[in-house]
TrEMBL record:
InterPro entries named among the record's database cross-references: Bact_response_regulator, CheY-like_superfamily, Sig_transdc_resp-reg_receiver
One Pfam assignment: Response_reg
Modified residues (4-aspartylphosphate): 55
Protein's name in the database: Response regulator
One example of a Gene Ontology biological process annotation: phosphorelay signal transduction system
Signal peptide feature range: none
Transmembrane segments: none
Protein source organism: Ancylobacter mangrovi
Keywords from the named record: Phosphoprotein
Domain Response regulatory: 7-118
Length: 129
């Protein structure tokens, strides 16, 4: 099992929700790595990341494309999609790929989902390579 706090990478082109998510996750005991674009995350790499939270609507590579790419380069890495948009097609597409939260999201529900995604059935941190 990995030593230290689980690392959650956050990608959002809007600094306000990015900072808010950082504060929420860090207050719950997670380490965070924040990025203003999918491209900056990919340049930094996914090494050491235990979970990814990404906004859907971003310039350049959007959250759907990032989720799909991450599934290829780091299979098993949990990816949560977040959005302020209310298009039904976005919601259905996001749910098909896993966890989805609409902004503003319920902090307790998000933290519970993060905890569940990071725990394996034995209660440890899930790390798949």
């Amino acid at each position: 099992m990995k030593q230290g706090r689980p690392v959650v990478a956050i990608v959002d082109d809007d600094p306000r929700p990015l900072e808010s998510l950082e504060e929420l996750l860090e207050s719950a005991g997670y380490a965070t790595r924040s990025f203003l674009s999918a491209e900056s995350l990919l340049l930094d790499g996914l090494s050491g990341v235990d979970l990814l939270i990404t906004d859907i609507g971003m310039p350049g590579m959007n959250g759907f494309a990032l989720r799909d790419l991450v599934a290829k380069i780091s299979p098993g890495l949990p990816v949560f999609l977040i959005t302020a948009r209310h298009e039904l097609a976005d919601r259905e597409r996001a749910i098909d790929g896993g966890s989805f939260f609409r902004k503003p999201f319920d902090a307790k529900a998000l933290l519970a989902a993060v905890g569940d995604a990071l725990r394996d059935p034995k209660g440890g941190i899930r790390r798949e390579k």
